[in-house]
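Hi R.,

Here are the chain sequences for the assembly we discussed:
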Amino acid sequence: MRTKDESEWIKIPNHHTPLVSKELFEKANASIKRFKIPKRKQHSYPLRGKVFCGSCKHAMHRSNETIYRCRFSYMDSSQPCYGMTIRESELESIVYEFLCKQFEVSLGIDGPNELKPVDKVAVRRAEFDNQIFELQEEKRKLYEALVIKQIDVNLYKEQKALIEQRLLEVQNTKAVVMTRLEAEQQEKERQHQQKDVLQSLVENKGLTSELVDMLIEKIFIYPNKRVEIVLKIKNDLA
Ligand SMILES: [Zn+2]
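And here is the predicted structure of the full complex:
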């Protein structure tokens, strides 16, 4: 129970006959030691809100700022997670080492001389657009030839059909190739992003709430101290 601040009290002066005089009340009141409930501190620690019991799936309670324990099975010795604890420092180092390993794995993603994925995609798109433009020009010239009666209608139709066929082929190829390249580009960008994040992990030389929030969805603790880390960022090698 918490008392509201006095400024929020509703006071009705002289509502009832006093049992004691005002002076006596104030004197007595001043001598009473008020029991203050301190405002609950918002503790900040890297794995905040991430640690769950792998057995019963409940959030694990962080007690005395040093140990995580599953309190759901606190009174139930039949539960597999009964009495299960893990030291915070131990868990943090497990998580940190795990993330560092992920970083090492991610280092060899691409060579330094490779074209930026954006460039590659743009170059390919320009090549296709150029081919399409050339074919449209050809079609336009063919029509001009018809207009100035350089060719007859039959030849025009025949040639026009051929150009349109090639145009269709180029457009289809463009669609297929560009879809694939764009997917590749997205994947590369994702990997770059991941690399940046993990780089900062190593530079920081420790876990921070920011990094944990960025990288980790949940951490499950199992009775045999097995730790399962669910990453937010999809990593094929995780
Ligand atoms: Zn549990």
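The pocket of zinc ion is lined by residues 53, 55-56, 58, 70, 72-73, 81 (CB under 6 Å). Residues 51-108+208-231 form one domain.

Let me know if anything looks off.

Best,
T.
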